[in-house]
């Protein structure tokens, strides 16, 4: 297996993002529309935090309701801001961080996505799914 491949080769570059001023209803819509589990929160391109689908589940009944109970979600979402729910203590990696180093970080933490940043500017995101896909390609 290749030892020194940069994470930039497997990261998602066209990142679905939330602006710090967006609401949680928009967040839920983005999660479902794009079938993703993590959304970086930005002000411009400057990263401020990351919101996970699990963060929404903690404050609502997102998976437990049907379309008729949508009003419940909206009411709960209106009680919180993105900033209140997102994780603010970020661990990020640089584009030149190796895939191995990235995997080590994810294996040792309790999260499944890392923003890829140049300084505090978001340039991508890498998830455990990206790492698994990379690993599987090594067997081709």
Automatic annotation (TrEMBL):
<dbReference type="InterPro" id="IPR046342">
    <property type="entry name" value="CBS_dom_sf"/>
</dbReference>
<keyword id="KW-0129">CBS domain</keyword>
<dbReference type="Pfam" id="PF00571">
    <property type="entry name" value="CBS"/>
</dbReference>
<dbReference type="InterPro" id="IPR000644">
    <property type="entry name" value="CBS_dom"/>
</dbReference>
<feature type="domain" description="CBS">
    <location>
        <begin position="11"/>
        <end position="68"/>
    </location>
</feature>
<dbReference type="InterPro" id="IPR051257">
    <property type="entry name" value="Diverse_CBS-Domain"/>
</dbReference>
<feature type="domain" description="CBS">
    <location>
        <begin position="86"/>
        <end position="140"/>
    </location>
</feature>
<protein>
    <submittedName>
        <fullName>CBS domain protein</fullName>
    </submittedName>
</protein>
């Amino acid at each position: 297996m290749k030892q020194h491949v940069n994470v930039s080769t497997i990261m998602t570059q066209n990142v679905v993002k939330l602006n710090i001023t967006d609401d949680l209803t928009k967040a839920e819509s983005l999660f479902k529309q794009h079938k993703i589990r993590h959304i970086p929160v930005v002000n411009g391109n400057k990263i401020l935090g990351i919101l996970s689908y699990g963060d929404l589940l903690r404050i609502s009944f997102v998976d437990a309701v049907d379309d008729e109970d949508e009003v419940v979600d909206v009411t709960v979402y209106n009680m919180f801001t993105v900033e209140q729910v997102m994780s603010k203590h970020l661990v990020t990696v640089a584009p030149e961080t190796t895939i191995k180093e990235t995997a080590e970080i994810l294996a040792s933490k309790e999260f499944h996505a890392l923003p890829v940043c140049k300084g505090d500017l978001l340039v991508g995101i890498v998830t455990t799914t990206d790492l698994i896909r990379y690993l599987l390609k090594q067997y081709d």
